[in-house]
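Ticket #226: bound-state structure for ribulose-5-phosphate.
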Amino acid sequence: MIEAEKQIAAKAALQYIKSNMVVGLGTGSTANYFIRYLGAAVKNEALHTVKCVATSKASTALAREVGLDVTPLNSISKIDVTVDGADEFDSDLNLIKGGGGALVQEKIIASLSSQFIVITDAKKQVPTLGAFKLPVEVFKFARMPVLNKLAVMGFNPSLRKDTDGTVFISDNGNVIIDLDLKKIERPERLQEQLQNIPGILDHGLFLGFASVVLMGKNGKVVEFTT
Ligand code: 5RP
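RESOLUTION: The complex was predicted; output attached.
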């Protein structure tokens, strides 16, 4: 059910891609469906000379596996459209991202994109952000002082671990601290607080980035725009 919702949202995002575009590729299971659909569209020549930039090592590998041309961010001058998943979105199309630990690259690529399209299943729609733990990427060197500071601020932080119990390390060599906030009533205020803590590289609040959310629900795609 959820996988079908992800798939129809991912397929619907293809309508935003035209030949010769530079396309940003997100990270996660929903983004993976989009990467596969885009690869198939290029392979069957429905789309031509699409260039891609990817937000993680995993997305780069999958995109190359399905025959997409992935180029480094530093070698392109524009991104037309980025398609990515999200962990939560609200009615303002503000997002929590970073469940897959790729939030730093995801935010950079979203910020450089003329259009940022978010694809989700219906579980990601929330009245208030925060039930999903907010990921924060932190320099490994500073993880304990930052963790302590976030605890003192009442943000219920925990260091992300892999399934084998070892500390999760991002593609950038940093750690992720997840904040158990339950409800984020003032996302702009929280963003400011997090940005003012030295050692935090970035956080998973994506405020004002998404232009469109495509949500799969009951076999249909519901489109939200700003
Ligand atoms: C990765 C992300 C993902 O887009 C987010 O976690 C959603 O993943 P999925 O599509 O697997 O539910 O932000 O850092």
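RESOLUTION NOTES: The chain has six helices and 14 strands.
TICKET STATUS: resolved
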